[in-house]
Amino acid sequence: MSISKKEVRHIAELARLSFTEAEEDALSHEMSRILDYVDTLNQVDTSDIEPMTHVHDLGQVVRSDTVRERTTHEDAMENAPDSDGEYFRVPKVIG
Length: 95
Fold this sequence. Notes:
Mean pLDDT: 89
Largest sheet: none
Number of strands: 0
Radius of gyration: 30 Å
Low-confidence stretches: none
Helix content: 40-55%
């Protein structure tokens, strides 16, 4: 399948791009090669291949949901470099 320079200009206009005459020639040739390759791929028999969403057979990898003891407010404040006892104090970052 070949893509004409007119079609390249139309695609470029839709994408709001502009190309030189030489770039249009190169793009026409390159897009034609891509479509030829896709046509070659379409000729491959995939009737025995099950549709998939990923090439690797991965399952959902998640950790089990377990109830654990929460960190207390006092323990969290104990590790704070600067606090007023109730909240963390941090340097002002907005002018």
